[in-house]
Specification:
Elements (H helix, E strand, L loop, with lengths): L6 E2 L13 E7 L2 E7 L5 H8 L18 E4 L2 E4 L12 E3 L12 H8 L9 H14 L5 H7 L11 H19 L6
Parallel strand pairs: 1-3, 2-6
Antiparallel strand pairs: 2-3, 4-5, 4-6
This protein binds FE2/S2 (inorganic) cluster (2 copies).
The site of one FE2/S2 (inorganic) cluster has 11 residues, from loops.
Length: 184
């Protein structure tokens, strides 16, 4: 994916007048971003309020719900537990970065097909956790899937269809990689 520098002016919306700020450079969904942030700015607030990436949700203030899950250097993290200054020089992927060239990822497709959501509030975080799980284990058992999403809470579904959706996504990824021209 092409990378381009993008100065971010609205950081002022997150800074108090006269307070100290730090300049960060971070790659978000394949694009390089430079911004001034306060030392206290959380990654989730930076993503939502500065970059406008509101697919990353805030569902609690106790680091429990997982709605804010994004990938940091390929690993799922709760972005409400990370400071924006900590991601300088690193790569962040949000739910907006799952689709490629306008095509939904296998995980996104599977959540639709297997009805892995109801209200959808937990879904971005679930999909980021699922994507990371399937990258290391494309054929997870029920127990492995439930263990992977233990940090993502859903108040609607009872988790049954979420587990089905994740396992369906794994099957989709395996059949895509075994198809002619698919990635190994
Ligand atoms: S907003 Fe709930 S864990 Fe981050
Ligand atoms: S679908 Fe509503 S919280 Fe999970």
């Amino acid at each position: 994916m092409a990378t381009s520098a993008r100065p971010v002016a609205p950081a002022a919306s997150l800074t108090s007048a006269g307070g100290p700020t730090s300049r960060i450079q971070v790659t978000v969904n394949g694009r390089s971003v430079v911004a001034e942030v306060e030392p206290r700015t959380l990654l989730v607030h930076f993503l939502r309020e500065v970059l406008g990436l509101t697919g990353t949700h805030i569902g609690c203030d106790t680091s429990h719900c997982g709605a804010c899950t994004v990938h940091l250097d390929g690993k799922p993290v709760k972005s409400c537990t990370v400071l924006a200054v900590q991601v300088s020089g690193r790569e962040v992927r949000t739910v907006e970065g799952l689709e490629v060239d306008g095509k939904l990822s296998p995980v996104q497709e599977a959540f639709v097909e297997a009805h892995g959501l109801q209200c959808g509030f937990c879904t971005p975080g679930m999909m980021m956790t699922a994507t990371a799980l399937l990258a290391r284990n494309p054929n997870p058992t029920d127990a492995e899937t439930r263990d992977a999403i233990r940090g993502n809470l859903c108040r609607c579904t009872g988790y049954v269809n979420i587990v089905k959706a994740i396992q369906l996504a794994g099957k989709k990824m395996q059949s895509a990689s075994s198809a002619p021209g698919g990635k190994p």
